[in-house]
Amino acid sequence: MISTFTNGCLLGLGLLHTSIRHGHLIPVVLFPGWRRECVERYHLNERKHDSDGIGEMDSRESRILSSANRVYSWGGQKCNRDGFDKFYDSEEEAGESEGDSDNDFRVLDSYMQRERREVPRRIEVDEDELRHPLVREICRLIDLRAAWTPKLESELKRLLCSLKPSQVCAVLRAQSDERVALKFFYWADRQWRYRHNPIVYHALLKVLGKTKLCQGANRILRLMVRRKIEIWPEDFGCLMVSFSRAGHLRKAMQVLTLMQRAGVELDISLCNTAINVLVEGKRLEKALRFLQRMQVVGIEPNVITYNCLIKGYCKMNQVEGAIKLIEEMPLKGCSPDKVSYYTVMGFLCKEGRIDELRGLTEKMARESTLLPDQVTYNTLIHMLSKHGHAEEALGFLRKAEERGFHIDKVGHTAIVNCFCQEGRIDRAKDIVDEMLSKGCNPDVVTYTAVLHGFCQIGEVDKAKKLLQQMYKYGCKPNSVSYTAVLNGLCKTGNCSEAREMMNMSDGWWTPNAVTYSVIMHGFRREGKLSEACDIVREMIRKGYYPSPVEINLLIRSLCQVGRTGQAKRLMEECLRKGCAVNVVNFTTVIHGFCQKDELDAALSVLDDMYLNNKHPDEVTYTTVIDALGRKGRLNEATEMTKKMLHSGLLPTPVTYRSLIHHFCQLCRVDDLLKLMEKMLPRKNCKAAYNQVIEKLCWFGHIDEAYKLLGKVLRTASRVDANTCHVLMRSYLKHGNPLGSYRVACRMFNRNLVPDLKLCEEVSKKLILQQKLDEADRLMLRFVERGYVPSKDKQASFG
């Protein structure tokens, strides 16, 4: 995605420029009013930065950094920037080896115990900051980035200058998509008379550490180096976790070496991060070796360290090892906490090992003096319910109540939902009645679970009756409750009744996007496509936009019944109303027209794709190419194939099969070979020439197939042998055993032994045609290789 905020804000707003540095694509948007000045600043930065610069600072900073001493303060210690840069150079050359080498532990060998002064480094962003009107307004403007105007951007710039550093951190945290937070950081950093406070960098790294955006976190860390911003050890931990989430375990562990070269010493929190990274990467043995090395150099593990290892044992299905580690922890001067036990309990709940679960609960109280409390029982109830063990969860609920603990409606609802998913609705209903008798009134979530359960087993009438009883018990159904009942009606073929119920919403609830989708798909499954289209239009009028998948399901149903024109109109209407119509939707309509042999209409839709900035993919092109081939318009099919290749798309196996079929049908072999010479370098198809020969045989063009035999005998594989057998059988079918004999001889010359039974049949046909010498030579070729012909053939030899 090459956009600053989105591709939409580039239209009429500015100029897109990209710079590639060390494999990272850095988007730069120059907005109105700043275009010329920012272009000059950016290109000046390009000239002033060193070879691995980020391209984010102005020319003044570049001059300062280029003349500055290469040794500076990092986290209160002297750090060598050259070592930092060389690490990245060596890292890029190292590749992604995922072996279990202990080279990454060398950083522990240089660890030196010394007295440290703990410096508080917490970034506090309280809820008040997240709810601050200024923060909320900026978040609103960011959400409108697809429709930005110069006025909106100017307003955002004005508000940006009024933000406190903690509020900038709040904006970053408030973004649901972390990529948007990263782009906002870069955009704000380029604004005139604004400079990020150091805590913003730390906050952004913390946000990116929860994602797979490891390259973004990498660039932020390097940017902090160039701007001489103090880097905390926790920042390296965020980078490690991000690399780990992206699947780059080796790079995550190399961050430890980066810290060593940067002059930042390890602490227990970073060691715990490293162990957790190894555990998440299923490298338990390596994590245990890391623990041993820690203890050798004097870094004492804490309860978090052991909890990470306990989780690792559970991930590897070695629960006995986890329990043994819990038993050994007190001997090592570190008592287990409830998290230690909860981790193992979660694994036992998942496996349904209830007896061991009870024993572990008693052991927790007996040996660790950690008495099971309400949180413990709630945890057990939820975990057991999540993994489908409703009866066992109910047993722990009873035990908790016997000990005087009060399990709230959330715990009861978890059990009710589990029973409903198992189809035991009566049992779930009993628990609801029990909740009422105990004064633990069920809420709308509890009733909705039962409603959904009734609908799953087809008891829609009971669900409707329960829906009315909810009012009696003072619980108002919401949109989710009604949608569950409507879904049940649609599944039983009562979509019209569901539509009437939705139209009769009396203010207690309002249909949402899911409600409309349920009814739309119900009408679609019943074949009432006009009603389904009406639901889509009503849905759009109410401001609920169907997804591309939902649109595609409906237009595909229309195309399947031959109403492709209506499918096209529906797609165009959705596109005009702002729905997210994608290339798959266009391809479905094109395929519908091609199935009806309305090729001109299909080509018209293809042109509409370009007009709407939707670029065809391989499936789109292949669909059109196949339709052109069926119509015999091979010249146009050739041009369409070249256009697909020119667009950078690779032909698929279906593309090859379609072209080979239609060209071979008309025996235009030379044109096919020229086209394949252009396709094969882009996407090699090893069996392409085999397919050509077999198709030519299928359509009776045997001599043309024989001319291509040399192209498949180059590798002499089993696939090639099968192709030769097809050609031999084709010659036999057309009464030309001599042609089959020539094919067999060419196979022998390539050390490829043909099928003996097939060659015996060829020999018999040759004898019938008085080709005795050829028949004898064919059988002798087998004898020379140690194959014994049948008795009849031996008699003919004699």
Automatic annotation (TrEMBL):
Key words of the record: Repeat
Keyword Ribosomal protein part of the UniProt annotation: no
Signal peptide: none
Annotated PPR repeat ranges: 267-301, 302-336, 373-407, 408-442, 443-477, 512-546, 547-581, 582-616, 617-651, 720-754
Cross-referenced InterPro entries: PPR_rpt, TPR-like_helical_dom_sf
Gene3D superfamilies: Tetratricopeptide repeat domain
Highest taxon, organism lineage: Eukaryota
UniProt key word Repeat: yes
Protein known as: Pentatricopeptide repeat-containing protein At1g09900
Species whose genome carries this gene: Sesamum indicum
Lineage of source species: Eukaryota, Viridiplantae, Streptophyta, Embryophyta, Tracheophyta
